[in-house]
Amino acid sequence: MYSFHTALQLRSGDPEIIDWLGRSYLQEQQPEKALELAGRADSSSRNSALIHILLARAYDAQDRLDEAAREIQQALKLDPHCHGAHFAQGFIAWSTGDMARAVGEFRQELELDPYEILAAYYLADAFEKQGDLEAAEAALAPIGKNAANSYLYHLGFGRVQERKKKYPLAEEQYREAIRLAPQEQEAHFHLAVVLRAQAKTADANAEFQTFSQLQSQSKCGTGQGMGRMRPHIPDFD
Asked: What CATH class has 149-218?
């Protein structure tokens, strides 16, 4: 973070440096510092879509979703092809239960960048929540083709198979997801569920215990957007 502060002193008002420093604050769960940093930006910097996306993430981290949404809209006015703006709108819709809008926004993001794994994963998740498992599987196909070693691909594909009650295949996918990212909680939880569905009680209990331990160690914010427990907008980069 020191290097970002130094760079900002040399290039005051540079939107990219402000963005990177702001992201550092958000990673340290200090959204108020990110807001203060963006608020000090001069008028030329405030005309950068990057700054408005940073503000949106900071507001989102404080569960101020209306303000976050306004900043995203401002970013899109300044740059209709702004990286991450449609994803951010889709994620807010997804986290508050508006799956139809989430699908539309994630699709727009993927039109701008067909290789964006996170947008494809959440598009599949939105389809799954709507009960359209074939569309969910189709949304995951590009990840499987371009990033087969992605944790998100195996987690997402496993969830679709779980919903289809193809438990052995789901188990295989969750185990691969865990191999790729042992500390991620969700795969352990879903693996426990499909193990229990297959009457593998001892293994299921062990996975539930692992999930509980990882959850207790988690330091990420839970969020209370719109009065609901919700995750914050993940960072594309």
From this structure: mainly alpha
